[in-house]
Amino acid sequence: MAKVTLIFKLPYYTEWGQSLIIAGSAPALGSWNVKQGLALSPVHEGNALVWCGQVSVPAVFTCEYSYHVVDDHKNVLRREAGEKKKLVVPEGVKDGDVVEVRDWWQDASEALFLRSAFKNVIFSATDNAKRQLQSPSLSKTLDPEDIVVQFIISCPRLAAGST
């Protein structure tokens, strides 16, 4: 069976005694068991601290994974926010090839728009035609320097008077 080497690289700064582990759906990444996941090692690339790790997998390989900050005993201190990352080894990769995966840590602020409040309510297409501008505060006279940001939120699943 053809094998390829996956090299993961993630720029991320940790505190002393912390390290990064990739846990994923495949046995090579611990089958979601963080303590058996792929441990990464820190490398300085210029001014950046980049965590790197490599693992050998079949040339036809697909999985989901996420990054975890752990202590010396592999206890999870922080998980990457947002949806799990998906990896599919590209077609045409041959036995012995190397595939480099360069990632970015997903902060909670980036994951905010993936939460159900945004996906099911704010970005929902229901009742778009019924939405109207209903803000008495906008009826005042504005100075040319004023910036107005208005959110019109439709919450069709909430009963009238709910908060």
From TrEMBL:
<protein>
    <recommendedName>
        <fullName>CBM20 domain-containing protein</fullName>
    </recommendedName>
</protein>
<dbReference type="Pfam" id="PF00686">
    <property type="entry name" value="CBM_20"/>
</dbReference>
<dbReference type="InterPro" id="IPR002044">
    <property type="entry name" value="CBM20"/>
</dbReference>
<dbReference type="InterPro" id="IPR034840">
    <property type="entry name" value="CBM20_DPE2_1"/>
</dbReference>
<dbReference type="InterPro" id="IPR013783">
    <property type="entry name" value="Ig-like_fold"/>
</dbReference>
<feature type="domain" description="CBM20">
    <location>
        <begin position="1"/>
        <end position="106"/>
    </location>
</feature>
<dbReference type="GO" id="GO:2001070">
    <property type="term" value="F:starch binding"/>
</dbReference>
<dbReference type="InterPro" id="IPR013784">
    <property type="entry name" value="Carb-bd-like_fold"/>
</dbReference>
